[in-house]
Amino acid sequence: MNAAPADQIRLLDLQALDTRLGQLAHKRKSLPEHAELQALEADLTQHRDLLVAAQTEESDTAREQTKAEQDVDQVRQRAVRDQQRLDSGAGMSPKDLENLQHEVASLAKRQGDLEDVVLEIMERRESAQERVTELTGRVASVQAKVDDATARRDAALGEIDAEAASVAKERELVAGSVPADLLGLYDKLRVKEGGVGAARLFQRRCEGCRQELAITELNEVRAAAADKVVRCENCSRILVRTSESGL
């Protein structure tokens, strides 16, 4: 393939732009905020799960407390009724009065036991409420960190994307000035050779593979016409000759 030396040199400009686009794409994927957000979101999910569990426990103990308080109230009301009957003694035999006294005493003990149960439940509910408050604060704290990291990531992505758009536009202009056949070869090699399709020959060394040309290859390059598109024997990339090639 033949191409004007100026067109070949433009490949170096094109390569520099493609290299920058590759760097920006890598930078976009490897922003530290990505890993930070992944860790924070895992932490947030864990704390939210713990919060839901604590809220469920608090809700369950609240229902348990209501039921226990209702049991106490029922025993208390029954004890009041029995005490009123005992105090009046109307139409009751001594045996009935004795049985009623035993029942009142039994109800008093039952009420005391149930009130102890209510206190125990209230303590558990208070503990659950404290846990809910603590975890609510933790969730809010982690969420704030997530929001901050998200804002920093989005700002960084915005800068990267803006630069990438500018570089892509410049690449389009440069690519448009390169002959189609030369551009096609360059693009094919760029895909095949890890993003580098053309490299400068600098001081007898290919800057694509960093290998110095063998003497026979160097002589062939020296003998090649200025418009001949030469390739590196080591990496197959297009070798672009300049005044600094050492020929």
Tell me about this structure:
- Keywords: Coiled coil.
- This is Zinc ribbon domain-containing protein.
- It comes from Streptomyces gamaensis.
- The chain has 247 residues and is mainly alpha-helical.
- It has two domains: 84 residues, no CATH class; 136 residues, Helix Hairpins, CATH 1.10.287.
- The chain is built from five helices and four strands; from the N terminus they run ααααββαββ.
- Strands 2-1-4-3 form a four-stranded mixed beta sheet.
- β3 and β4 form a beta hairpin.
- α1 packs antiparallel against α3 and α2 packs antiparallel against α3.
- The longest helix is centred in the middle third of the chain and has 83 residues.
- The chain is rod-shaped, with a radius of gyration of 42 Å.
- The chain starts with a helix and ends in a 6-residue tail after the last strand.
- The mean pLDDT is 95.
Rg, nearest Å: 42 Å
Report the major sheet.
Answer: 4 strands, mixed
The counted number of beta strands is: 4
Task: Estimate nothing, just give the exact number of structural domains.
Answer: 2
Range of strand content:
5-15%
What's the shape?
rod-shaped
CATH first level of the largest domain: Mainly Alpha
Could you name the CATH topology of the largest domain?
Helix Hairpins
Domain CT398-like coiled coil hairpin: 14-194
Biased composition (Basic and acidic residues): 60-75
Protein name: Zinc ribbon domain-containing protein
Pfam families: CT398_CC, Zn_ribbon_9
